[in-house]
Every structure is written in C-alpha cells, then in structure tokens.
Amino acid sequence: MTSCDCDYILPNNKEWEPHYNNCSLVWRRYLGAACPKNGDGSLRLLNENLTKLDSDVIYHLGFDTFHYDLSAMFGDVKFVCMGGTKQRMKEFAKHMAKELDVKNYQLTNLTKHSHRYAMYKVGPVLSVNHGIGIPSMTILLQEILKLLYYAKAKDPIIFRIGTSGGLKIPPGSVVISSWGLNGTLEKTYNIPVLGTLRKIPSIFDKRLSQELQSLISDADGFETLIGGTMAADDFYRGQARLDGPFCDYTEQDKIAFLHKLADMGVRNIEMEATAFAAYTNEAGVRAADVCVTLLDRLKGDQVKPDKATLLQWQERPMKVVGRYIAKYYGNNSRA
Ligand SMILES: O=P(O)(O)O[C@@H]1C[C@H](O)[C@@H](CO)O1
Ligand SMILES: O=c1cc[nH]c(=O)[nH]1
C-alpha cells in the first residue's frame, strides 16, 4: 500500500480494507480481489458471470452489448454527471456544451427506449438523471458502470449534482460530501444481500473534493463547504421532518437529532450519498457528490424559495463541476 495524505476514519468492517490508488481511496475486499482498474484506466468489473453472457442487456438504459457498439458510442466518455431530475441533467448537458465549446451535439435522450431515465452526451460528458433515492440511483449507477466497462472508457470520474437540506449553513450554500452517513448513523451503505446485511464504506475521494472546492471563490457569491452528508431513505420521517403525513416524535426530538448530526460533522441531508460513495469506490472510480442546500433544517422543514430561486441555486453545483471538467479536460486535451 502506498502512502497518502488521506485521513479518513476506517470503518469497523472486517470484510473490507482501504487501498490507495494514486492517492485516491479505493476499497477492496479482503481475500484476493485486485484493484479494479486495468492498466489503461478502463474499468475491471469483478463479476465473472458477465464474461459468460452472449449479450448483456442493460435494461433500464435501453442498451445491450449485441445490438449496440458501446465502445464506439461511449468509449470517449471521461465524466458522468448524475442528478435527480431529467430537466436538471438536460440543463447540465447544455451548460457543458458551452463550457467545453462543443458545437456538434444533439440533446437526444439516449435511454428513450427504456422510458426510465434521461441521458444526454456532450463530447466527453454523459449527463443522466437518477430519480429520487438510493434504489433508483443505484440501478442507474450500476448500469452506468457496466456501460463504461463495455465501452472501455478510460479513467472516468462520476459526479452527482443534487439538492439537499442544510444544517446550520445559509440556504443556497453548496456542500461537497466527504462521507455519507446512513439513517442509523454509520458511514456505510447497508444493503441486504442473500438475506444478510452487507455494509459498504461510504467515503468520498478527498483530493477530488478539495480540487472542486478550490475552483470556487468569493466572487461566485455562494459558500462551498466540504462536510458529511446524511443519506436518508425518506424525505419526511427519515429526515426528521415534522410535516409528513406521519410524525411520532416532538419538535424537541427533531432539533436534538439535527444538532447531533451537525456535531458529527454532517452539513447536509439528501437521499443518495452513502450508496453513491460505496458503489463508485467498489468499482475503483473517483466520484464526488456536490449538492446545494435549499433550506436550513434547523429553521424549518418546508422548501419555500420560489421557482426562479430554486432553479438558480441548482445551477451552483453545475458551476462547480462544470469548472472542474473544463479545467481537467482542457488540460488533458492540450497535453
Ligand atoms: O438530485 P436531487 O435533487 O434529486 O437530490 C435530492 C435527494 C432526493 O433525490 C431528492 C428529494 O427531494 O432531492
Ligand atoms: O431537505 C431536503 C431538500 C432536498 N432534498 C432532500 O433530500 N432534503
């Protein structure tokens, strides 16, 4: 293991060990699993069953490996950016066309046969929505990982640009997640597999977060922080709201819980961070979760800014990630 300046807290999970790859944190299973990337930066998925398929149907994206030349279609992808809504991801595709000065692109929904998600491609950028919550996001993410694998895309980076509720920070601030915290306050994504709960560490790439934060200055007019992100499995009780159809705790309980989260270093609450960190790490792919906060949860539960403000705030994560891509891609294409 090479040394690294990463100072993450290691999870109490004996099934996994941290592995540093070019200073990026990658998690690998004890007993045998190698670092998942190939020498050329393409993904090496550790599922041998895939090699036995005549054709792999990537069902929710509407592709398969027999009828589509995924390498020709997506081999040049360097960045995948995902977020909840179709509209936001279409806007992000347009934003990236401007940032990268891409002239010949079409805003065609590439997944239209499946009617599930919307995916756009602009030069080296794939922009795709994932819907709400971990199950919807992880289906999309796993199929994107397979797509990148079959396409032999080199060293792809995956971003999530989202919205969230903030804790003790001004609404409109942007939070870049350093780790995800689940609903029982562990820094893991917990998923039952074959009847047993699997816990996968949910830690983000520290260097990538810092690089993103460094691209924003006071002149941008919003605060950008690095901090913990709670990923809840629900928008209402799961996020300690008082305004859902059910509420079986008091306002004092809610406030005490939110203070407890803030004391642990949580800066915002959304619904995907844990699984997003876990699965990108497992695939050996660098990733960052960049979310704007729509309200301070210590001051309320309802999302009240008007439509224009909400749309304007959602452009902030686009700005952060767009700047990173323009800088990285510009440097790379000049090299
Ligand atoms: O990317 P989005 O804005 O969908 O992220 C958050 C978390 C949930 O998906 C959703 C809840 O309103 O917003
Ligand atoms: O409070 C909020 C706002 C947006 N998204 C969430 O998940 N929670």
UniProtKB/TrEMBL annotation:
- Quote one Gene Ontology molecular function term: uridine phosphorylase activity
**Where is the secretion signal located?**
none
GO CC annotation: cytosol
Q: Which domain of life is it from?
A: Eukaryota
According to its UniProt entry, this protein's organism is Parnassius mnemosyne (clouded apollo)
Show the InterPro entries listed in the entry: Nucleoside_phosphorylase_d (IPR000845), Nucleoside_phosphorylase_sf (IPR035994), Uridine_phosphorylase_euk (IPR010059)
Which Pfam families does the entry mention? PNP_UDP_1
> Which residues make up the binding site for substrate?
Q239, R241
Q: Where is the Nucleoside phosphorylase domain?
A: 78-325
Q: What is the protein's name according to its record?
A: Nucleoside phosphorylase domain-containing protein
User: What family classification does the UniProt entry report for this protein?
Assistant: Belongs to the PNP/UDP phosphorylase family.
Q: Name one GO biological process term.
A: uridine catabolic process
What are the binding positions for phosphate in this chain?
A: R116, R160, I161, G162, T163
